[in-house]
Design goal:
One of its GO terms (cellular component) is cytoplasm. 38% of the residues lie in helices and 14% in strands. By secondary structure, the chain is of the alpha/beta class. Helix 6 links the parallel strand 5 and strand 6. The structure holds magnesium ion.
Length: 183
């Protein structure tokens, strides 16, 4: 498979709030691996993020199997694992596909029934596609202005444009009135 194809998300959505049990059923998915930073909670933040906590509760209540798959430190991942009542690990080593396969196995599901949800093409989408998962790209919750992130974001936009997706803060910025950011 070409690199461009491996960088193509199965879905591009605004946030995890767009994922419902019906959305998953339509795609044959029974479980999700979840990136932490900028997907479930803003990058580096330890503030409560009730919207994601509620979403996790709703998914779990509907029988969807969830686990964190984060490159954050073990300490940070542990903290949020506890607060969001999720299984899973930090320091996952994304985009190494072995990490995705292992995590899917831990959910007790075959890869084709597992989705990877994240905000980065070069870790979440690339690794998820390499492991044979359905990949779902969300807009990052905050625009972290680190130089290396800015370059990655620019490349991501170019790749996504090739796949026909407009993406970035001018398309949809979390925090708008309709978004209920942080509520
Ligand atoms: Mg992330």
């Amino acid at each position: 498979m070409s690199l461009l194809k491996l960088l193509r998300p199965g879905d591009v959505i605004r946030s995890v709030a767009d994922i419902t049990p019906e959305f998953l059923a339509a795609r044959g998915l029974r479980g999700l691996l979840l990136d932490l930073d900028n997907t479930l909670v803003p990058y580096h933040s330890y503030d409560d993020f009730p919207r994601s906590a509620r979403w996790v509760e709703e998914m779990t209540g509907s029988g969807i199997r969830l686990a964190l798959l984060s490159n954050a430190t073990v300490k940070r991942a542990e903290e949020w694992r506890g607060r969001l009542a999720l299984e899973g690990v930090g320091m996952a080593g994304k985009p190494n596909p072995a990490a995705f396969r292992r995590a899917a196995r831990a959910l007790g599901l075959p890869p084709q029934q597992v989705g990877m949800v994240g905000d980065q093409l070069f870790t979440d989408v690339l690794g998820g596609n390499l492991a044979g998962l359905h990949t779902i790209l969300v807009h990052p919750l905050i625009d972290n202005a680190l130089p290396h992130t800015r370059i990655a974001r620019m490349l991501e936009r170019r790749v996504l444009a090739r796949h026909g997706h407009a993406w970035g803060p001018e398309v949809w910025q979390p925090g708008g009135a309709e978004d209920g950011y942080g509520k």
